[in-house]
Specification:
The protein has helices spanning about 20-30, 30-45, 70-75, 80-85, 100-105, 135-145, 150-160, 175-180, 185-195, 210-220, 225-230, 235-240, 240-250, 250-265, 310-320, 325-360, 365-370, 380-385, 390-395, 430-440, 450-460, 465-475, 480-495; strands spanning about 50, 285-290, 295-300, 305-310, 400-405, 405-410, 415-420, 425-430. It has about 500 residues and is of the alpha+beta class. Helix 4 (about 80-85) packs across helix 16 (about 325-360) and helix 16 packs across helix 18.
């Protein structure tokens, strides 16, 4: 047997993720507002591209300020749209849905939040467009100069301000701060008192009791009775009204007034600062019900720019390109422009197909509300519209749907099934949560429903779920246990 080296030719096939295909996949995850940013960058880099007017429906007069224009594709019914696929009347496209899924065929299933919209590599984060509001630290630093007596006190107070957490509390022991700054504890206490005198009232406190006490002093309600009440917040939490009356030496009416006063204080005064106000969500998909009873699914043209090739400019450039390099540059720009237009067109078709199937599967929700939300998975939708599950996942990422019931994230309609009913399908987790909340909201204050009782009531309605599931959903809704609700309603009754 010879071991001499030799050369062999072998032929093999492999799938390659081209940069354009990677970009097309990324376009699926972007919302309409992020697509607008992406298109703005494309317009700057490619002179052959320009913004085109949204197509008008037949018979619409020029300059009509009515509703947003619709493409012929969006005028068709959702079921017909899915069945036809890419119709001949639509803009031509060479980018098929299968092509957008090649990454999954090669085993690349790691498309996550880091590669999605708003990631560090993309620069499309919508949150970056907003202007940050004034932080708690800046708000306090702006006040300290006028309130301090000398530069040394200003320095210590600023050091304390920088150590406050987002809720406005000083979590670090004051002795440790004094040792770190090399100052006496008494001097640190005087500077802390200065910080606690700033707006908002309660900032600079070391615990909840001190925070409430500061606000009570600010409201001129910190008398000996209120002081004893604040010192025994554990009894307030347990609802031991009789003990509180004895400790505070007040009757039931006065105690009710004091508890009402406490409830009016802010236990986390710092959270009012540094919180950016969430703007109105611009939906990507619009759902409406026609008079014939069918659902109309349309893209929100108001937030979806349209790209076209600037043909007059293309002709001018083509006439001016004399050398080979200029003609090659123009050819590359034209191919890039056409590819991007086709990719955006395919993105719209894919979003419409997924949204239409969601409407079909969750029609009960759109007609009757969350109690009729069905269990639904990405795989089910993918099989119905004959796409890969990864494509459906990307399409539903960072997209919002507006319907007569409000604006919802597309991910909201995908929920697991629990407690199988007679049809064996079960109910969605959201519908079970909604039913639990409605039962608790309607409970008699004298007959608080335990988790076991909730299980019995749900089983009577064909929701066959375990007690631990009820407890998990109740906690997810932010609802306390039966003991906690009983105490809270007892305190509310005397207040």
């Amino acid at each position: 047997m010879s071991l001499a080296p030799r050369l062999d030719l072998r032929q093999s096939q492999s799938l390659v993720m081209t940069p354009q295909l990677q970009q097309a996949i990324k376009l699926l995850t972007l919302s309409n507002l992020e697509i607008e940013t992406f298109i703005g960058d494309a317009l700057e880099s490619n002179p052959l591209l320009e913004m085109g007017e949204a197509p008008r429906a037949d018979g619409e007069a020029d300059g009509d300020p009515g509703d947003a224009p619709e493409t012929p594709r969006e005028e068709r019914e959702a079921d017909t749209l899915i069945a036809e696929g890419a119709a001949e009347s639509d803009a031509p496209t060479d980018l098929s849905s299968a092509a957008l899924e090649i990454d999954r065929d090669t085993g690349d299933g790691s498309w996550g939040a880091s590669e999605g919209a708003g990631g560090e590599d993309d620069g499309f984060g919508i949150e970056q467009r907003g202007e940050a509001s004034l932080s708690l630290t800046d708000h306090l630093h702006a006040q300290i100069g006028a309130a301090a007596r000398d530069e040394r006190e200003i320095f210590i107070a600023r050091a304390l301000i920088d150590r406050l957490d987002e809720a406005g509390y000083l979590a670090e022991p004051l002795l440790s701060v004094a040792e770190a700054l090399g100052i006496p504890l008494a001097e640190a206490e005087r500077s802390l008192a200065l910080v606690q005198s700033l707006d908002p009232a309660g900032v600079g406190a070391r615990d909840l009791a001190e925070c409430l006490a500061i606000q009570a002093r600010e409201a001129d309600r910190y008398d000996p009775c209120m002081a004893r009440l604040i010192d025994h917040l554990d009894l307030v939490a347990r609802g031991e009204v009789s003990r509180l009356q004895k400790l505070c030496e007040v009757d039931a009416e006065d105690l009710a007034d004091m508890l009402a006063e406490l409830r009016g204080y802010n236990p986390r005064p710092g959270l009012a600062f540094g919180q950016q106000e969430s703007g109105t969500v611009a939906p990507d998909i619009l759902i409406s019900r026609e008079g014939s009873g069918t659902w109309r699914v349309a893209l929100n043209e108001a937030t979806l720019p349209r790209l076209v090739v600037n043909r007059p400019y293309l002709v001018t450039l083509r006439e001016g390109c004399r050398d080979r390099s200029s003609r090659a540059w123009l050819k590359d720009k034209l191919e890039d422009a056409r590819w991007l237009i086709r990719a955006l067109d395919q993105r719209q078709k894919t979003i419409l197909a997924v949204a239409s199937e969601i409407v079909t599967q969750q029609e009960g929700f759109f007609l009757h509300g969350v109690s009729h939300l069905r269990p639904l998975t990405l795989k089910q939708v993918a099989q119905r519209i004959e796409m890969h599950e990864s494509t459906v996942s990307r399409v539903t990422s960072n997209k919002f749907l507006h319907c007569p019931r409000g604006t919802f994230d597309l991910k909201y309609f995908f929920t697991s099934g629990v407690g199988g009913g007679e049809d064996g399908e079960g109910a969605s987790a959201e519908s079970v949560k909604a039913r639990i909340k409605s039962l608790i909201d309607a409970e008699d204050p004298k007959k608080i429903l335990s988790d076991d009782k909730l299980v019995e009531l749900l089983k009577a309605e064909d929701f066959d779920i375990a007690r631990r599931t009820v407890a998990k959903y109740r906690e997810a809704l932010g609802i306390g246990s039966s003991v906690q609700r009983r105490r809270a309603k007892k305190l509310a009754a005397i207040g």
